[in-house]
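Its record is retained below.
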Amino acid sequence: MHAVFSWQGIILGICFASAMGAIILWMFRVPTQVSAPAARIRRSLDASRRIMVPVVDAPYSGRGVELACRLGAKQKSEIVLVYVIEVPRTLPLEAPLPAVQEAAERVLKTAAEIVELNGLTAHTHVKRAREASEGIIRAARDEDADLIVMGVRPKVGGAETLGRTGAVLLRQAPVEVVLDRIVD
């Protein structure tokens, strides 16, 4: 008797042995050591499932939306877009402001387009408050936001400006706040 070798059998045997070798190497691979603080920081950003972005009719606001999308891209975060109508104290909060309401809806539509271009889900809301910061903080609680990302106004007249809203958010927001300032 003499043995008959089949090329198909030899190739199949080599493929099987290679696959088993690769699996064994993968199983015994030692993962890269990461310190506990670095791992916690990485997990904290991965936990940002609902990112809220306050928007206004300005280019820096659109940059804030784009930044939020990029921060939330990996975990497919929901982007909550909020336009806060600041109602003067001389009027009731429910006072009709048709021109402002129309502008808010236009700005939210543009912001939602940016979110959709990034393949994420956008939720839009118009809120009313006496001050924008008050409305943003309330919206962050109501919408169960994990992170607030906001574009802020660049230098005005050569002077640095964080703005009243940004300063209040940094002090009082119930969640982490990321501010993005465009450099001229």
About this structure: The radius of gyration is 26 Å. The chain has one domain: 48-181. Residues 16 and 155 are 64 Å apart (CA to CA).
